[in-house]
């Protein structure tokens, strides 16, 4: 048995080495302008020229793609070999660039939609779960106009909405979508348009978006540059597969790698934050040869097998097998047992390794600012010390930048940079695509090699549309200096919120950086009793005023302010107009 296993693993290793050598040879040949890549001077004549009679004729098709002006295959291949996973293989000796595809009508789909429509028509109107749709409370505007802050001027009117009303959508949602879905607000919003930091409901009412689709919209809703990149790419080619070359994915990988410190230069694309973290955890386990992972309490990393294990809040955990994860004390500066002393919390990680594992670990994963956990910034000094303990125990350090990346924290492009550490693996999603389903894992070439042991494959990860959009997002962030804006506007807003804390007992804590801010509400400042009901009430009132914010934290008593990074000082400064001057004394 041992012999069989030994032979199998030897084969895997030698296969991997052979593949890496092949890649090295390819790269070498590229830099030497190997004639194999310049297909015009190929030694083997293409089939067409050898024997024309043998070539099947293509059916007639009336479409000529626009001229291709992107980089040539050899250049894309060079970037792909340098910045994308070494586990990727491609079809053909001379891989093809697929630039354009043309759509065909699918009549079967139309028939299916008609069937759905007929079904929907037969839906009964009486669903008791929809009973709360007739409001009893007057909207705030009608109650007291003087209290309503004025929205900053914004020169945009959305087109008229012609879709179904909120009540109808809700009915379908309740009937056809997961019963686990919840919605914000007693009367859930039907948002139909978005423009930069504003959202519009079905009646054209404008809302200031201070939540950003959960820290996801970074450039602004429907930013024209991002939309243009998506539309252009969709018009040319929506999907091929990573088995062919495409410029969008290689160029985005290069651009992302340029934002990374040290040797973090190899990118794997995924479709979500969960997928990115799953992959990162698997790579850490493969690289280290250890299964045990340390994560911290109150963290959120996703909802698949390994990531649900690493997530440490019971609200997000189901009763399914989640092995090999150890949850260390949270370096929570507001509620944590050691206050802001990062070194004391870091000692707990040493203890977890010493008493909870065999002394070796696969890795450590943490957010620099816990988002779902209520915008909690890890205590200073914690990460450098923990990274050192984890590395001593043979593990890799993973920075989960799903919420805190892409300039959101203002002071830095990545959240981990504020702690003076360089991770071994960085994961990202949300802001990376301004709303596109896109995630990524960035690591070193050496760690990336672990995926060459077997085939690692992700059908949509790194698809042309998402990566073209992602590249446009990076360019907008730079062109519009959105990280700098997050710093300036975020600092101003935090200052204002902190001054509110002096006036209102209910505000227990104001925290965060840039445009990732949290306000924790408590009914008793000493006991830090979570003000859950009050949080829900204020959120409802703010919505009536036209301001959308998020909420989170273990107890659901923390406002999360994570707007698009184009949020302005005028948006941040929205406050009720001053009370009217007292009437003049009677003369
Ligand atoms: C820090 C963090 N990591 C991972 C995830 C999971 O990302 P996704 O929902 O895209 O799977 C989230 C989602 O909120 C997150 O906040």
From TrEMBL:
This is alanine--glyoxylate transaminase. InterPro entries: Aminotrans_3, Aminotrans_3_PPA_site, PyrdxlP-dep_Trfase, PyrdxlP-dep_Trfase_major, PyrdxlP-dep_Trfase_small. Belongs to the class-III pyridoxal-phosphate-dependent aminotransferase family. Keywords: Photorespiration, Pyridoxal phosphate. Its EC number is 2.6.1.44. GO terms for molecular function: alanine-glyoxylate transaminase activity; pyridoxal phosphate binding. It comes from Camellia sinensis var. sinensis (China tea). Residues 568-587 are annotated as: Disordered. Its cofactor is pyridoxal 5'-phosphate. GO terms for biological process: photorespiration. It comes from the Eukaryota. Gene3D superfamilies: Aspartate Aminotransferase, domain 1 (3.90.1150.10), Type I PLP-dependent aspartate aminotransferase-like (Major domain) (3.40.640.10).
